[in-house]
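Quick one:
INPUT:
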């Protein structure tokens, strides 16, 4: 874990003070009214977005108008009062304060590292040539893997990924690797965990969120092969939804229902806008219930269960970052928005009592008034029997990564630890 940066901490505190003082000096106590006006505009915009997503016809058009007009009107008021420059400067200072505060404190860690002194003798790699728009071919990964001593199997689309990995183990593989998306990574990772074999991630998928949280370079997939000769080993957790492993997350509710539509793959935005109104406000709208350890939550439209908590609120398509992958806890993000008022309260964040709920748990039970539940497991659509028990297996997977990685897990994609930042800013060299 790296030491914190007092210089960055002081810059964060100064930027925070500046973001408060600029509007106060410009408009005095009236600046509080301008802040309230900005919050009100965001709430009205949230109501407009709700109208777009949950309704059709005239209501959707009115929602679009409100979502655009509310913030535009406030900006016009700021400009007319000569406050626009102050508002922009205050927001810029606030953004600077958050960025520097998150980077000032000691960085988190994906998992504890152990030196991997023994290189694998019979590594096996499964490669999906279609994944990531053809990254396997574009980065010449087949030849590079073979040059590194790997036995390569190409996935043709009709094969059983789990069975291929099991066969590789039966034939003597002492390391399993995947060049493909997170869904394929999860299937092979399960086999590696079951046989206590090291697992290697080659980020050749489209998003590669798992690789990102392991600190790997998603722009240079071949660099992951350096771990074979000069690597370290991480012990990380695996998530389970029923009997399905996930390395990132399992999503339930609206998103999982949307992706079941055959048209979603070719027209994501159009299909989402067409199906969401019925899923959010229709008679057949899914309503989920969840039990996260001892916490009971009902009336949910969407639920995301992640392998270790994300640092900030996320959606299934654009997750945030995880500060670590060995906490032994699932992250839980619940969405419960049934009307425009609840949509407006989302602006106040997950701790406001609004429609966004975040917590951590060792076990999450998801159920609905149906016999089955559609789910998105690391982006792959599956149907699971209800209720679905999600659990975490601490330290189940051995992951081999290069000793030198360009990206380490961030200290903060979440809220800044301002008390810690202030303490670091006021500290002297003797106290550090």
């Amino acid at each position: 874990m790296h030491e914190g940066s007092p210089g960055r901490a002081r810059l964060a505190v100064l930027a925070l003070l500046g973001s408060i003082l600029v509007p106060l000096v410009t408009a005095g106590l009236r600046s509080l009214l301008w802040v309230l006006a900005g919050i009100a505009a965001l709430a009205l915009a949230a109501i407009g977005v709700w109208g777009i997503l949950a309704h059709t016809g005239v209501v959707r058009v009115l929602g679009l108008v409100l979502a655009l007009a509310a913030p535009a009107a406030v900006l016009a008021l700021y400009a007319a009062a000569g406050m626009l420059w102050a508002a922009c400067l205050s927001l810029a200072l606030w953004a600077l304060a958050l960025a520097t505060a998150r980077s000032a404190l000691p960085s988190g860690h994906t998992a504890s590292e152990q030196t991997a002194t023994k290189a694998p003798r019979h590594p096996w790699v499964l490669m999906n040539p279609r994944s990531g728009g053809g990254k396997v071919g574009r980065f010449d990964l087949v030849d590079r893997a073979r040059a590194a001593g790997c036995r390569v199997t190409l996935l043709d689309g009709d094969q059983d990924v789990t069975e291929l990995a099991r066969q590789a183990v039966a034939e003597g593989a002492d390391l399993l690797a995947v060049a493909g998306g997170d869904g394929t990574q999860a299937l092979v990772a399960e086999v590696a965990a079951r046989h206590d074999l090291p697992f290697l991630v080659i980020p050749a998928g489209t998003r590669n969120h798992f690789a990102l949280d392991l600190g790997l370079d998603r722009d240079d997939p071949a660099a992951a092969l350096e771990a074979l000769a000069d690597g370290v080993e991480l012990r990380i957790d695996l998530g389970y939804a029923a009997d399905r492993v996930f390395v990132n997350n399992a999503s339930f509710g609206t998103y999982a229902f949307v992706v079941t539509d055959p048209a979603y793959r070719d027209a994501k935005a159009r299909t989402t806008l067409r199906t969401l109104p019925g899923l959010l406000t229709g008679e057949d709208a899914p309503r989920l219930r969840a039990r996260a350890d001892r916490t009971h939550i009902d009336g949910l439209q969407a639920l995301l269960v992640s392998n270790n908590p994300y640092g900030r609120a996320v959606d299934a398509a654009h997750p945030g970052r995880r500060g670590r992958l060995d906490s032994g806890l699932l992250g839980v993000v619940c969405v419960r928005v049934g009307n425009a008022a609840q949509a407006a309260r989302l602006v106040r964040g997950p701790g406001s009592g609004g429609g966004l709920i975040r917590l951590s748990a060792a076990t999450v039970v998801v159920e609905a008034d149906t016999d089955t539940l559609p789910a998105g497991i690391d982006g792959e659509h599956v149907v699971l029997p209800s209720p679905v028990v999600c659990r975490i297996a601490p330290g189940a997977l051995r992951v081999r990564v290069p000793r030198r990685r360009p990206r380490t897990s961030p200290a903060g994609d979440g809220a800044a630890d301002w008390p810690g930042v202030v303490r670091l800013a006021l500290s002297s060299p003797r106290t550090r």
